[in-house]
Design goal:
mainly alpha, elongated
C-alpha cells in the first residue's frame, strides 16, 4: 500500500484543493457573466424602447427572458459541478 491509498493524505488534500479552486473560478466567472448580462440588457433597453415600437410589458418580457436565461445556466452549472464531483474527475 502507498500513501495514496489512505484518505486524508497529502494527495487527497491536493485533489480537494484543486477541485475547490476550480469551483471558486467557475462561481466567480458565473457572477461576472451575470453582471455582464445585466449591463448589456441595461444598455440595450433604451435602444429597444426607442426603435422597436414594443410596449413596456413586451420590453419587460425581453428583459426577464435574458435574466431568466442566466438563472437556468446557473442551475445547469450546479448540476455539472455535482456530476464532476460524483464522477471523481478531480481525483
Amino acid at each position: 500500500m502507498t500513501m495514496h491509498d489512505f484518505p486524508g493524505t497529502v494527495a487527497d488534500s491536493n485533489s480537494k484543493r484543486g477541485y475547490n479552486l476550480f469551483l471558486l473560478l467557475v462561481s466567480g466567472l458565473g457572477g461576472l457573466l451575470y453582471g455582464v448580462d445585466v449591463g448589456i440588457i441595461g444598455g440595450a433597453y433604451p435602444y429597444l424602447e426607442a426603435t422597436s415600437g414594443l410596449t413596456n410589458a413586451q420590453l419587460s418580457v425581453i428583459v426577464a427572458a435574458v435574466l431568466l436565461g442566466s438563472v437556468f445556466s446557473t442551475l445547469f452549472a450546479g448540476m455539472l459541478a455535482d456530476w464532476m464531483a460524483a464522477s471523481r474527475l478531480w481525483s
